[in-house]
């Protein structure tokens, strides 16, 4: 079968012929129906800092995976052929595309412990987006951010993660303000039920934000969040648009700001997002492309030309 594989930083993905996977004891093979593209895919291609995370090279990337169980291995009794599943990338099985060959291929093998059941009325595109973008957003806002009814929350970035995080917070009863440089998506921001939108989080300095979640992570956004959050507030760093930031430690210290990193989440976070999807109250923007368009899609992400989450859903 064909697979999009990563070989090295600053080199394009390569379409390679690879053997079809088989189900190991305790594992399954998934027929991939949707695979999400992520800014971390851009980072992997551009920044050598990501190389240490890879188990091997070349490796089939793609860590947001949804599909149908095509084969079950010895000892697997709780899943059967035909089950609709998403793959949580943060279990002891490891992350697809990093610890083992991922979802930019027609089939993928994975341990059963990573599987989460996709509700029947949830599309595979949403199933894929929920595994990382959804999980990470839900965890950052609810678990790490401690957002609840009445919280004044600032969200930086209304892309694939930010749109989900902002809406989850609204559904939790928070008062949400969004900073998004791309004015073309402001109508989508307002439709999510937020209180305000602007180009910079600094525009909400007078609001008294309790928590700011930075889904962009372009260095200056982290610094802006620390300077804008209220005294005693919390800044949650999720985005990794840049792997370094220069911050004002005076404000960090004198305002007693808590700066917390948030990575991934749990299967419970994936399930929580799937449950929101199933109700129809959470319906983030998704742009669907084909398997052949994956490299072009990653470039579109790098160029900032994607609205919502980018998911490959056909041509596998």
From TrEMBL:
Residues 8-312 form the Enoyl reductase (ER) domain. GO terms for molecular function: oxidoreductase activity; zinc ion binding. It comes from the Bacteria. InterPro entries: ADH-like_C, ADH-like_N, ADH_Zn_CS, ER, GroES-like_sf, NAD(P)-bd_dom_sf, Zn_alcohol_dh. Its cofactor is Zn(2+). The keyword Magnesium does not apply. SUPFAM superfamilies: GroES-like, NAD(P)-binding Rossmann-fold domains. Keywords: Metal-binding, Oxidoreductase, Zinc. Belongs to the zinc-containing alcohol dehydrogenase family. This is Zinc-binding dehydrogenase. It comes from Agromyces archimandritae. The lineage of its organism: Bacteria, Bacillati, Actinomycetota, Actinomycetes, Micrococcales.
């Amino acid at each position: 079968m064909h697979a999009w594989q990563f070989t090295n930083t600053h080199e394009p993905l390569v379409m390679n012929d690879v053997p079809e996977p088989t189900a190991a004891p305790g594992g399954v093979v998934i027929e991939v129906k949707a695979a999400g593209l992520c800014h971390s895919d851009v980072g992997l291609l551009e920044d050598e800092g990501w190389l240490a995370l890879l188990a091997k090279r070349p490796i089939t990337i793609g860590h947001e995976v949804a599909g149908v169980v095509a084969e079950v291995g010895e000892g697997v009794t709780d899943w059967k052929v035909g089950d609709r599943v998403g793959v949580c990338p943060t279990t002891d099985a490891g992350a697809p595309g990093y610890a083992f060959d991922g979802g930019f291929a027609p089939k993928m093998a994975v341990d059963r412990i990573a599987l989460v059941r996709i509700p029947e009325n949830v599309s595979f595109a949403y199933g894929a987006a929920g595994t990382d973008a959804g999980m990470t957003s839900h965890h950052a806002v609810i678990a790490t951010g401690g957002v609840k009814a009445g919280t004044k929350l600032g969200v930086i970035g209304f892309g694939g993660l930010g749109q989900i995080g902002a809406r989850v917070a609204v559904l939790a009863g928070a008062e949400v303000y969004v900073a998004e440089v791309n004015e073309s998506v402001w109508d989508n921001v307002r439709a999510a039920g937020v209180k305000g939108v602007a180009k910079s989080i600094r525009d909400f300095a007078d609001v008294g934000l309790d928590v700011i979640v930075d889904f962009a992570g372009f260095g200056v956004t982290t610094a802006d969040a620390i300077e804008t959050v209220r005294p005693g507030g919390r800044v949650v760093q999720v985005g990794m648009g840049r792997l370094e930031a220069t911050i004002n430690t005076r404000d960090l210290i004198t305002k007693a700001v808590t700066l917390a990193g948030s990575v991934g989440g749990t299967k419970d976070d994936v399930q929580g997002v799937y449950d929101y999807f199933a109700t129809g109250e959470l319906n983030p923007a998704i742009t669907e492309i084909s398997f052949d368009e994956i490299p072009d899609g990653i470039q579109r992400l790098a160029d900032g030309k994607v609205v919502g989450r980018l998911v490959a859903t056909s041509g596998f």
